[in-house]
């Protein structure tokens, strides 16, 4: 049986979910990457969530929360999220990305690492797609088994599935070389469980929104530096950091949007090169 955490809700209003992704915090808070202090940019995004009046029931942090996997980075992440007024009362769930050290993340944030959470009429499932020593992703049998069990136990719940790596090509040669390497196994499994409505990921540092049959496929900007795709190649972009909000309705419908930091201009001052590859 899958361990599930349920969020108590007092009415039938839609559940509000906020996604943060690719924070790339370092053990040392003053560190700058591609021209951005990643601590400062995350704080700016948290201020924007508050300014936008978002009060999420659930916050999903979808990987690359740290750039170097240092425990201090995860402790600082916990402190920043815990002090954010907009997140007062929100449950927080984290999953690892290719730059994270999963063991350190789970040790520092054990309560936030629960993979299955019910909120309203929805089930939110977080999967670990990391491969030690690789920037690419993979869904091992253990994660596919977890997914199947979580879906089988709640066939009547609309489901959102979150992971770090993109499960489909996004027309970027670079990022498509670092997606999960067995997407066919995922989509074959999902054909048996039509309650899955949303696939959500990070990793790519830009907004993506596409449909695949009954699935809404979404990626979200980073809370620090951004990439865009031009002629199939990724380039560093001067767009501001941001987050995604998602409203999950009782009938299985959803609404979503991306919001970017409004109170500052963000310039990376960098061109694609060795550092940008290191940041993926």
Report on this structure:
This protein is an alpha/beta fold. It has one domain: Purple Acid Phosphatase, chain A, domain 2, CATH 3.60.21.10. It has seven helices and 16 strands. The chain has helices spanning about 40-50, 70-85, 100-110, 140-150, 175, 185-190, 275-280; strands spanning about 5, 15-20, 30-35, 35, 60, 90-95, 115-120, 120-125, 160, 195-200, 210, 215-220, 225-230, 235, 240-250, 255-260. The strands form four sheets. Strands 1-7-8-9-10-12-11 form a seven-stranded mixed β-sheet, covered by helices on one side. A five-stranded mixed β-sheet has the order 6-5-2-15-16, covered by helices on one side. Helix 4 (about 140-150) links the parallel strand 8 and strand 9. The longest helix has 14 residues, at about 40-50. Residues about 265-275 have low confidence and may be disordered.
List low-confidence stretches: 265-277
Number of helices: 7
Instruction: Return Rg in Å.
Output: 17 Å
Number of domains: 1
- The percent range for strand residues is 25-35%
CATH homologous superfamily grouping: Metallo-dependent phosphatases
